[in-house]
Amino acid sequence: MKLKQKTSLIVTLFMVMMVNGQDFQGVATYKSHRQMDFKNNDSTINSELQKELQEQLKRQFQQEYTLTFNKNESLYKKNEKLEAPMPSRGGITITFSEGPDMMYKNIKESRFTNQIEKYGKQFLIKDSLPSPKWELLNETKNIGVYTCFKAQIRTEFKTQTLTETNGIETVMKEKITTAWYTPQIPIGNGPAEFFGLPGLILEINDGKLTLVCTKIVINPEEVITIDEPKKGKEVTQMEFDDIIEKKTKEMMKQSGTRSKNGTTVIFQSGG
Fold this sequence. Notes:
By secondary structure, this protein is an alpha+beta fold. Helices cover 20% and strands 43% of the residues.
């Protein structure tokens, strides 16, 4: 056996022993990058302005997150930072919404709590964790000092678009999510809503969103506490989806009406 393989095996066995310990815990830092679709109905917006707006938005979507975890639980939240004003050029005002403010997962009890603010209201989504059907692939790569394996999952999602006649069309699309996980940290967890692999997920990509782990601390000196979020109107995932769908239709209709007398800019940042 080569020295590199021996070292990897020793590290993996050591990590397994640590995980089996009662007090195993860790903190992983992730950075996000998001692809955006720039759409507008105003031919007076030249390509240079579009490019400038695209670059400024790209920087806005580069965020940093922390995943605090133990054997059974995790808490994923965005790190606070001073936000720069969103670009405003030629009377164009751009707004966008982020993902979960704070997401708690309990793998052992197969449930999650997602604290999120939408349209000025705080929601507390409580529901069961789904059972992801990952396909394990025979590909590897290194992320830092960790050997990672590739996995994929295919899902369908519903999206709504504004038609040329200002109508709303609902279509189903397929999304392929690719994960890179490391058995060297044999915790079946990961950033955001992702979990269910035989190792901590260090990188995830769903076609538009990419999350990459940049730092991991195993068993830090200061004891970690994982507190489940408690603020917001309690709803199920289905109830929350219905609320967002109705609000999206309402906003798209308003946007279609306004577009007759002004500029409409739409950014799609989701799946």
